[in-house]
Amino acid sequence: MKFKQWLGISQNESKVTTFKSSATDAFADSIALELKGVSTEAVKQVLEARETKYMKAVLDESYFVLDSLVITPRDREIAQKLEEFLTTHEAVDTHFRKKFFEQVIQREYRSSRGSLVRVPAEFEVTVQLGQDSLESLSAEEGFQVNLKGRRISFFAEASLTGPLKRENTQSPMAKAMAQVASSASMHRATPSPSASNYSQAPHAASQLEVVLEDKRGLTNHVVDFPMVIGREVATSGIAQNVNTLNVQSTYVSRNQIVVCELLGDAYYFVPESASLSCQRSDGVVLEKLKLYPLAKNETVELRCGVEFNDSDASPLQGSYADFALIQLRLQGISHDKTPRPRAVP
Amino acid sequence: MTLSCVHAAQVNANMGMGFDAFYANTSDHIFTLCDGANSCPGSGRAAQWLSEAFAQADPHTLDEQLQTKHTQMCALFPETGSTLVRVHVGQDGLALASLGDSFLWLFQKSWGGWAPWRCIESMPRDIDAKGHPTQLVGSEVCERLHLRSFPPQGRYCAVLMSDGPGLVISEKQLRQRISVIGKERPNISDLEYLCQSLAQDASDAGCNDDISVAMVWAHYQ
Predict the structure, then answer these.
(1) Given an 8 Å threshold on Cβ–Cβ distance, is B204 in contact with A181?
(2) What number is the ipTM of this complex?
(3) In the predicted model, is pLDDT for residue A176 greater than 60?
(4) How many CB atoms lie within 10 A of CB A336?
(5) SS3 of residue A115 by DSSP
(6) Is the Cβ pair B181, A188 closer than 8 Å?
(7) The whole model's pTM is what?
(8) Which residue ranges form the domains of chain A, and what is each CATH number?
(9) Residue A224: its chain B contacts at CB < 8 A?
């Protein structure tokens, strides 16, 4: 009889089962930690060397991009173990190498001075064998350890690009408009396979003509996409790349109409924040967030100051000072090259 | 009085047609940006030549230089034309010159650097109703160089741009970017970053033209 049984304590109560991790798992755990450490050190080292060239204000509003990270095993034994480990797992999962190093690399790194390194989503670590990786350690080299006594197994070298400007902190409306703006610019920057140059892209060949009739009388404007028309719209936190046009009349929302371009076609809509709608010349009262297409060379007349749920509204008769008239027209323009000035005879 | 001057540029940042040229004469602190008319194939080389020619210190006045260089350019690069914006940071003050449709702004941080950066000059652009240049160096019309001068006091930041980015970047955006510098003396890397970020802004705003941005920071103490 064991001592515990003699005391009357059941053996089952104190039974602890320990699952021993296999040698491969232990290797993976230790290697992942080590790789994480050396890669972080490498990134921090290159970042700290780089950031001294920039003033704090620049670092605060920008970020660097991790361009490359090369990890080199320090001796033959480590190189063999790592290669075996990766090859064995890759036989089961072909994407294992990528997945493993995704765990090793952080999404962001920061220095004590406040600079930031971002790692692109598609970033891949390079494992590269150096001269040392092919040679076995001598007895003395086997004792190469860091200051705290840990054996150094890997060497890492990182390179950065940048700095690039960080995204602005914007209001939800501004963010939405910036997305529209960027999608428009992306569309412009990527010509279709059939297009031989940018001037053939749909957006590049069109401009928006807006005729306003409000307290100021009749005014004509030619503007680019995307465009927000409304009362005091210029001061309502719209994104930088968005054009604005102010309407001076009594019954008009702050952000009344948004005109934007999506996939080469122009649309107008009443944004969520608008408290009043507009009525088209055909009697249709615009619904919130519904996209209405704007065809090239077609003129759309919108009268401001209509309630949203007024589906059978009769055409407004009030003055333009109270109920402004907005005319939208998509006009074709030619993006010709800069001509050489000629003398006038 | 001591003068510190730092400059940086992003020329043809979008790797577009390559009609823009920037030249920095760092010993005399003369900086030029030229944008060749992209309807004429040789204008890129003409702009390169002009930017170098106008960045040399010359005992003649700029008006006299203009006529000389214009005649030379007509002979060397016939059927071309180029804009010119020039900043000279001299011991006796700052001299700006412009001709054509390129952009040149001058910002100042007054009150010993305690006031915010503000635009004190936006050089005239020679354009017609369609936005096309009405005069260019080396073209049939090259009549007048716009000139401005500023006293040797405090901190200045001049921004030179070709018409592509200049048309899509507002003065407010520029002021916002320059405000990053604050009261400090920027490094070349800082100005390079600002030029690059402005070029990126222009590209994001849909600029299809050549994108060139240059900055010259000067401090008279």
Answers:
(1) yes
(2) 0.83
(3) no
(4) 11
(5) coil
(6) no
(7) 0.64
(8) 3-165 (no CATH), 172-332 (2.60.200.20)
(9) 206
